[in-house]
Design a protein that fits this description.
alpha/beta; rod-shaped; 5 helices; two-stranded antiparallel sheet; membrane; transmembrane; transmembrane helix; five-stranded mixed beta sheet; 32% helix
Length: 248
């Protein structure tokens, strides 16, 4: 049982009952239960709502949003800016991480002179002058001149004069129709003019085409990369490696 009352309860003489002030009329009818445990469900619901409101207020304060009585009407400008800033930062970080390795790979080999020495050459098939496959490892030991976009007559003559006996000289291009001119002199008569249409060897060595660049690969009999030089003229700085290609 409960005692019912309304917001306009008054004594017979229009005074407040028991000397207490009257309740606001907008509260409507109020029922006070005889057993206070009947209010436990409502009390738990109220505590849950208060905790939720406290968490919401704390987060709004951290984000710099309004926390006053009118905060139910949020102005999420700062929150939107924060989300956009984080998204832009993540995107830029991913973009930089994606392009840095490729730029380093494309720039490292032409500028340097190592070409990862010690690595084993892959089992590639090059294309001969008659269109037949030529196994790369069957040419070893070899001095391979990358002749893309180069007539290379002078370079091939120089290589043919300094290469030791037993070492194959290969003029390699990726375009069969753009093979260099054969030098008229006899020293280059033993040079093999081959094609690598898929640029498999360039890719393996991380050699990117560069204007006026004629890199050279020194490959030992065992299939090991001895050195990759950025230009034919640099062979003069490595006479010992050139002389012992057939011994490795």
């Amino acid at each position: 049982m409960g005692t019912a009352g309304n917001g306009d309860a008054r004594s017979d003489n229009d005074g407040p009952p028991g000397g207490l002030p009257g309740l606001p009329p907008e509260w409507g009818t109020i029922i006070v239960p005889d057993d206070a445990s009947a209010l436990a469900t409502d009390a738990a619901r109220l505590r849950t709502e208060l905790r939720r409101q406290a968490r919401r207020t704390a987060w709004r304060r951290r984000l710099g949003l309004a926390t006053g009585p009118d905060s139910g009407n949020p102005r999420p400008v700062r929150l939107a800016l924060l989300i956009i800033s984080v998204a832009v930062l993540v995107t830029l970080t991913s973009f930089i991480a994606a392009i840095r390795p490729s730029r380093q790979d494309s720039e490292a080999a032409p500028a340097g002179d190592s070409g990862n020495p010690g690595r084993q050459l892959p089992a590639l098939d090059l294309i001969g002058e008659e269109g037949a496959p030529v196994p790369l490892r069957g040419l070893l030991p070899a001095l391979i001149v990358f002749t893309d976009d180069c007539v290379c007559t002078t370079e091939l003559n120089l290589v043919s004069r300094i290469v030791p006996p037993g070492v194959t000289v290969v003029a390699l291009t990726s375009d069969r129709s753009a093979q260099p001119e054969r030098p008229p002199q006899s020293p280059a008569a033993g040079t093999r003019f081959l094609t690598d249409p898929a640029t498999g060897l360039r890719t393996f060595l991380r050699l990117s085409p560069a204007p006026a660049s004629v890199p050279v690969l020194l490959a030992a009999r065992s299939g090991t990369v001895v050195r990759v030089l950025p230009a034919v003229g640099d062979l003069a700085d490595h006479p010992a490696e050139l002389a012992h290609l057939g011994d490795r």
